[in-house]
Design brief:
The chain is of the alpha/beta class and 181 residues long. Helix content is 36%, strand content 14%.
Length: 181
């Protein structure tokens, strides 16, 4: 499933894959489930979304200066894509990013999104060695793009308090500051 958002976006939000009962069902990533609403509240608060929910493809949601994509384009079993699935979807992610001429930063939702961002940078000619360690709120400036790590807004993370609304909101405030520097 392709991503969606502002074609003039400077921010790419990079997730894992469409959720089986969310994006896979609705036809738009981070739509129709709790993860999408958790994400949209933070994006809305930082001015990247016009509404704080993501219910269905005709809900009026518009992203501003942001584009959302996934490392894997189909819902993998148990939300655990294989390396082969990730590799097969990588060219699609590269094409989506290449279609964003103003891209300056990536918010990576989870380790799979984080790893996909570094592969994306390498495909664009910016290889970073060693690859930085994933951490929530970690900010990494490269010659090409700024990468910001975040825990994924999955139910496993939000229900346990590993990721709180304040934590995710702080990541998007950080992204906004980075775009405004």
């Amino acid at each position: 499933m392709p991503g969606f958002g502002d074609p003039d976006a400077r921010l790419l939000v990079l997730g894992l894959a469409p959720a089986a009962h969310g994006g896979n069902r609705t036809g738009r990533v981070f739509t129709g489930d709790g993860s999408g609403d958790f994400l949209m509240r933070a994006m809305h608060a930082a001015g990247f979304a016009n509404i704080p929910t993501s219910q269905h493809v005709r809900d009026g949601l518009q992203l501003r200066d942001a584009y959302i994509a996934a490392a894997v384009r189909c819902a993998p079993p148990d939300n655990k894509p294989t390396p082969a699935e990730i590799a097969a979807c990588h060219p699609h992610l590269v094409a989506e990013a290449d279609a964003l001429p103003r891209l300056r930063a990536i918010v990576c939702l989870g380790r799979i999104g984080f790893d996909a961002a570094w592969r994306l940078l390498a495909a664009r000619g910016t290889a970073v060695r060693p690859k930085p360690a994933f951490e929530h709120g970690g900010l990494y400036r490269t010659a090409g793009l700024t990468v910001i790590g975040s825990y994924h807004p999955s139910r496993q993370n939000t229900n346990t308090g590993r990721l709180t609304p304040q934590m995710l909101a702080s990541v998007f405030r950080l992204a906004r500051r980075e775009l405004n520097r």
